[in-house]
Structure formats: C-alpha cells, structure tokens
Amino acid sequence: MRFVLASVTAFASITAAAATAQSVPAPQVGAAARDFRLTDSNGRNHSLAQYRGKTVVLEWNNPGCPYVQKHYNSGNMQRSQAAARERGVVWLTVNSGAPGKQGHMTGAQANGFLTEQKATPAAYLLDARGVVGKAYAATTTPEMLVITPAGRIAYMGAIDDKPTSKVEDVPGARNHVLAALDELRAGKAVSVAKTRSYGCSVKYAT
Amino acid sequence: MTKAVFGRLLMFLFALLAGDAAAHAQLPTPGRNAIAAALVAEGSAPRAGGTVQLAVTMQPQPGWHGYWMNPGEAGVPPRISWTLPPGLRAGTMQFPTPKPLLISGIMNYVYEGPYAHLVTLHVPPGVTGTIPLRAHFQWLACTDEVCVPEEGKLALDLPVGDGAVDPVRRAEFDRYRAALPLPLDRAGTSAVTDGRFRLALPLPGVDAAGAYFFPAEDGRLSYSAAQVPSRAGDLLLIETGAEGAAQPVSGVLRLADGRGFAVRAEPGAVPRADAQGGLGTGILAITALAFLGAVLGGLLLNIMPCVFPILSLKALSLARAGGDERSARAEALGYTAGAVAMAVLLGGLLLALRAGGEAAGWAFQLQNPPVVFALLLLTVAITLNLAGLFELPTLGGQFAGEGNAFATGALATFVATPCTGPFMGAALGALLVLPAAAAVAIFVGLGLGLALPFLLLGFVPALRRRLPKPGPWLERFRRVLALPMAATAVALAWVLGRQVGVDGMALGLAAAVLLAAALWAWGVRQRNGASARWTTWVPAALAVALVAALPRGGAAPASTVTPLLAERFSEARLAQLQNERRPVFVYFTADWCVSCKVNEKTSIDRPQVAAAFRRANVATLVGDWTNADPEIGRFLAGQGRTGVPLYLYYRPGSQTPEVLPQVLTPGRLTALTT
After folding, report:
1. CA A159 to CA A175: how far, in whole Å?
2. CB-closest option in B12, B15, B104 to A204
3. Cβ(B489)–Cβ(B376) under 8 Å?
4. Closest-CA residue in chain B for A25?
C-alpha cells in the first residue's frame, strides 16, 4: 500500500511541477532568462544565476534523435562548443528526456556520450522531469538559446538554417548560434534573434 | 520507509525497461520504411497537351505518423524534388487535412493513417513515347517516442496516350481528392488582443463544435494552447493563445466531421461570439431574435393594403358582438390559429422545397402563375364584396363561430404574402443558416404578429369598447376599403403579366370580369331572398376554368416553383442539353459558401432572370458542392477551378462555356439571353 502511495506521490509531484512550469509566460527574445538549478552528469549543481556576467548557450540534446546526430556526426556541434569556449562563453547542454523515453540518459551514460563524441560543453545538465525544458518552451532537439551576460535572451531557435537530417547540409548552412555570439561580442544587435527550431520533439514525461 | 524507497526504485527501473522495450519494438523493420511512399498516376496514359493527376501515397505502419506542411511545434514537413524531361512541369504538392496530435504537451500536425499528396503534372503538346517521372522524396516518420527521417527515389514511367482513366483508379483518386481541404470562397479576419489569437471565417451552414485551425505559417498562434470554436452568425470563430501581433494567416480549418477548408485571413475586426456558453444558446439567441423580428413584421403587415380591409372589418364585427366575452375570445383565438397555421403551412412547404434542393424563397407561391391567377380572382371577389355587390358571411360581417374565424385568419395570411417581401427579407434570410425547428419558430412568429391586434381586441374588452359603434357609417367604410383591395388585385394582375405576358394577364382580367358577373348575379338573388343558381355558378366556374388556358411558357407545375427551373447538375445531363442545342446556365454552390448564397439571393433567384431564361429556353443546372461531391470536384478541376462559386454559360453548339464573374447581377444574367 505504501509502495503504491509513494509512487502516486512521486507521479503527482512531477505532474504538479510540469503544470507550474507551463503556467509561466513563454520566453521571449529580449526578456530576462528565468533562473534554474540543475545537476550535471558529474553530480554538480549549476544555476543560471551563477553565470551572470558571462554569455551562456543552452543546447537541448537527445542522442537518439537523427537531427541531433546530424550535428554530432558532422562535428558541427563539437566545433560550435569549442568556438564558444574560446570566446569565454558557457555552453550548457540540457537533456529533458524523461526516463524510459528515447534519449534519456543517466550521468554515466551522458559522460560516455560526451567522451565518445569528443564533445566539450561546460556541463551536461540532467532535466529528466522536463522542468527547465518547459520553462524555456523547448520543443525540439536540437534547440538553442543564447543568453547575454546581463541575463537576457539574445537568440532562440535552430542551430542553423538547413532543417534536414543530412550531414552534407552542414557545410553550406548559416550557424545561427555562432553568428549571434560574434554579433554579441562585437557589441552589435543579433541580426537573426529568433528562428524556427527543427528536429525531434523533446521527449517529456507528460 | 526503506521499503517505500525500494518500491519507488523498482517502479523506476520497471518504467525504464518497459519504455526502452516499447521504443525498440517501435523502430521500423530494417530495410523497410516506417511510412511506405509510392508514386501513382490517375491516368495510366496521359494525353500530350493535358494534365495528369499524380499521387505520392503514404502508408504509415501502425503507431507511426507523417507531417503536414507546417509540422507544428516539432517535426519536419516532407520535401520533394523532381527530375522531369524538358517541358514537363509538376505543380506544388498538395496536403490533405491533417489532425492535431499532442505528445507530452508538444503539438504535432500529422497524418496517422494512409494518406496521399496530390501533384498535378502538366504534359506539353508534342510529347511522345514514354515519360520517365523521377523524384527524390524526403519525409519524417515519427511515433510518440522516436523520429526517423526517411527518403526514397520515386519513379514512374508513363506512356503518352489518350488520357483515359480507369474507373477503379478514378475512385481511388476521388478518395485522395476528398481528403484535401475545400477552398473557402472568402477571406476571414484575425485579431490579437490580450495575448489571445482570434480568427473569424465566413463559413455558414457547418457545426462549429470541434472545429480546429491549423496555421500554415509559423508564429501565428500558440500551437499547444487549446482552441475554442464558436459562432457569430455566418462567421465561425476560433480563439486560442497568440504568438505575436496579428498578421495575415492562411491554413486549414478542420471540422468535427473531418471536412477541411483551406482558409486565409487578414488582420481585422473579429466580432464576439453569439452568446457565452456555447453553440446551443447561440442558436437560441438568434432564433429568439428572428422570432421577435417575425412578430414585428407580422404586426406591420396589418396595415398593408392586402390585409387591412380584412382585419378592420373583422375587428368591427367583433365590436358588434358586444359584451359576450367568451365568444369574442373564441373568435380571436380562432383567427390567430388560422393565421399561424397558414404561416406554418407556407413556411413548411418552403422548407420542404429547400430541403428538396429547390432555391425557393418566401412568397414562392407567387412565382407560380396559376396561384397568382387564383389570388387575383380571390382579391377581385373580396373587392366586390367590400363594394357591396354581394354578401358573404365570412367577410360581410354577420358571422360567428371559430371555424369562420380560422378561415379568415388563414386567408389574411395567405393574401398577405405578396406584401411580406420587403419587410421580411432580412428575417427570412436567417432561415438559410438556422435549423428547421428554428425556422418554423419564425413562421409561427409571423402568423402570431399578423393576428396580434385581433388577439388583443379579443382579450381586452377595454380596447373593444374604444372601437367606434357600428352604424350606417360602417357600410360606407366598407365601400372605402374596397379600394385598397382593388389595388391589390391590380398588383396581382401585374405580377401575372410579368410572368406569362400580356395574353396571360388579359386572360386573368377576363376571368375577373366573368367572376364579377357571377357575383353580381348572386348578389341580385341575395337581395331577393333567393339562393344562388346557374347564373352564378356557370360564369364563376368558367372564370376559374380559364386558368387552364394560361400560357404555359414557364408556367411551372406545382412541384417546381423556383424561379429558375434548376435541375441537378451532372455531366451527362449537361451533354444531353447541349445535344438538344439548348443554351445552358450551370452554377456551382455550397451551403457554406457565402458568396454563392449572396449571388443566389440577389441575382439568380430573380423573376426577371427566370423570365429571360424562359424566353430564351435556357436550361439551368445547379451543382451542390456542400459535401464535396467528387463528380463536381472533377468538373471544377476540369474548368481550372478548385472551389465554388462558379458560373458558366454554354451557348448552343459551343463546348467552351463563358465563365461569368463571381459577383453577379440580374442584368449580367439577363444579358446572356440577348
């Protein structure tokens, strides 16, 4: 009986968290990015507030999604992460896949993925309950967000302008994230601040 | 406590395993696509210089779905790139009406069962041999759990031939065509207020409940927000969360019955829904309003020349009845019952004709010459009675009993219809979109309004006492009232003349003279205290018999009282009429098409158009596309049209029709016959 009760409570709390996340206004370019706290693949906690003063990139990840694979198999995502690191930008990869759904990973699995792909984000954050994903209205993988040092959303949308799953489409594409980072560094306004993300849907629990 | 933690862990592991197993089980069989795509052609041997309909058929495995042109919050639309011989051209890929699919709060616009994308291939003249059709097609297949981008090389070799189509293939393609959204004739409006996106589409005659709007463009509305459909008269409204400022938007509206409409809207005012709390009360509100309008209209009719004489004499006779409260009430009720019954009878007949596909309008009985002829004789008889030539219990005054009162009420309503047109036009227009029960309520209102003054007189003795006392002046008053009745007779004679020409009118007037003679003879005998005999019956019978001699021209048989004797459209009937070398007017309409209904009301269902068409022996065919009849769909496509309205005029001996503008005038139609 207590077993059932406990499960029901766990389920109810997840649902309640998702419900509260959905009731907040959708994120907008130019608006303040909502703070969050998540644990990474090594068990360390990260909050958005702790990176105030630095530019932050959020990348939604699902290793099982063919559109994510396109950007990892081509090395495009790793190159973008390295370029961001060089510019002093904090790159946070977020996995909002629910347990039991495609792409969900434990900390160990995530570390294995990063090693295998030679990926170098500042951290791989585990958002299995989807609270942060829903707060940022992330619907697809890969989906990208750029946050200014002042904590405002500067870019949200796709990684590039070729909405396909084909590796050969990477070279000719415009990398919206790197373009936004360059424009921010030059003190210019981000010319393409919002695009339509493409890919698989984020595999939320509910 | 530890037990609980252990239990939770177990639960978690179980979910992990089960989920994994499910996801793996759903992966497509290696070497086989989750959605099988194939290229097929409707005609196996297309004609050079023509078009052939191609379909990319999609067969998803159970649990898998494909995506619409706008995939929603996730997903990717399919893409096709053709490799065709020079000169051949493939049109844009068409998308059937999709379904909304919410997965974990993320909205997807998808197809879950088998579906097909239609593409029109244009084959230029002079092409011979075999046409190799090649296309590279990419599409995304997903389950609720996983997505797989798929692609395929589509290939089809078509020999150039006579363009014939196999009936089985035709039926298959008819199904594909039926799944495409129907283009709506008019644009709607969209507005964004307080973060809410509101859309108004001119779409009468369909049920709003369960309607869903798919925007073709991104950033117009919040995909995963619930959509609330409602109605504002002829407008179907959709309200949901907004995504940005109001912008032009296009897309597909899906109804609960699965029908889809291709729609577009410009930023503009969006009215409020008819009533809070849903559709049922909305209809009730319209009905109540239309009912009140009908009562008011009926009330106004009392002062029209057709009704006033009958009513006023009736009223005075009631006054004469004096203090007998009960008989006064019975009289009033009888009269009211008669008026309402006749209104409902005429209204019911009108609705039945409409349901039967006739484009009948109020006062439709006046479009039937024999009925006009009969009405003419009736008004002449009433005129002569009022003038004192003869006495009739019902109208003359010395009557009693509810039976007579009932007949008088019915007569008043029947005679009143010619006068209803200008007043009742708007209220009766509501009938187009109201259910039958609500329409009947309007007719009841009309009859009730007509009987209202008399009803009041019957039930309020104070009012009766204020009526002037009967006296010799009453006889004079009655003579005076003969004048408006005579005017009504003149108007009817004119209507008859418009319908069947001068000969018919002369016939009507001759009948009136005969009737006058008969009634005069009767009157003479009445004054001598005798009853009617052959001097009355013979000329009266003769007068009535003259109706048989009315010019037939278009003198419609009772079953077809519409001004245009429209027949149901079929290509076979069209060909037959063309063989008979008759000019043919063909029009296509649908109950949900506002432009169609406006044109029918203002231009097509017009007496002058009917008369002109009758003179020129023009046959009229009407195609009703309300339910997307495939034969009509094919015919429209053959005319290069995707929707209604469409107006065509075939001159005798010509296979190519004259395409008339979408905004008609009666003059434009009558000019066709000259």
Report:
1. 6
2. B104
3. yes
4. B195
**To the nearest whole angstrom, how far is the Cα of B147 from the nearest Cα of chain A?**
6
Residue of chain B nearest A197, judged by CA positions:
B74
Give CA–CA dist B403/B498, Å, rounded.
36
* Chain A residue whose CA is closest to B78: A164
pLDDT for position B464: 73
Q: Do A139 and B73 touch (CB under 8 A)?
A: yes
| Interchain proximity B11–A7, CB inside 8 Å | yes
- The model's pLDDT over B121-130, given as tens digits with 9 standing for 90+, comes to 999 998 999 9
Compute the distance between CA of residue A52 and CA of residue A105 in angstroms, rounded to an integer: 28
Count residue pairs from A and B with Cβ separation < 8 A.
90
Chain B residues whose beta carbon lies within 8 Å of the beta carbon of residue A140: 73-74
Q: Tell me which residue has tokens 């309200």.
A: B239
Closest CA–CA distance from residue B55 to any residue of chain A (Å): 23
Nearest to B272 by CA among B332, B310, B231: B231
State ipTM.
Answer: 0.74
Q: Which two tokens stand for residue B399?
A: 């009557």
The answer to whether B231 touches B208, Cβ cutoff 8 Å, is yes
With tokens 């993925």, the residue in question is A113
Which among A94, A64, A87 is positioned nearest to A165, based on CA atoms?
A64
Q: Which residues contact A120 (CB under 8 A, 6 or more apart)?
A: A78, A81, A82, A85, A91, A114
Residue type present at position B141: A
Strands B106-111 and B89-90, bridge-based pairing: unpaired
Instruction: Please tell me the pTM assigned to this model.
Output: 0.59
Angle between helices B402-429 and B436-459 in degrees, nearest 10: 130
B379 pLDDT band (50/70/90 cuts)?
Answer: confident
Q: What is the pLDDT of residues B463-495, one digit of tens each?
A: 777 776 666 777 787 788 788 778 878 877 877
Contact between chains at B19 and A201 (C-beta distance less than 8 A)? no
Q: Mean pLDDT over residues B227-250, rounded?
A: 89
For residue B550, the surrounding DSSP H or E stretch is none
Q: For chain B, what percentages of helix, strand and coil (3-state, to nearest 5) are there?
A: 45, 20, 30
Q: Do B477 and B313 form a contact (C-beta atoms < 8 A)?
A: no
CA dihedral B630, B633, B638, B639 (to 10 degrees): 150
Testing the interface with A: which of B139, B146, B223 to mutate, by most A Cβ within 10 A?
B146
**Which residue in B147, B148, B221, B243 has the most chain A C-beta atoms within 10 A of its own C-beta, making it the best mutation to test that interface?**
B147
- Structure-block tokens of residue B561: 């009282």
Task: Identify the pLDDT of residue B602.
Answer: 82
| Percent with pLDDT over 90 in chain B | 28
- Interior angle at CA B464, CA B461 and CA B465, nearest 5: 90
Q: One-letter amino acid identity for B483?
A: L
**CB count, 10 Å around CB of B665?**
14
Q: Report the residue from A6, A165, A205 with minimal CB separation from B7.
A: A6
- How many CA atoms are closer than 13 Å to the CA of B411, on its beta-carbon side? 19
Q: Which of A101, A130, A199 sits opposite B74 (nearest CB)?
A: A199
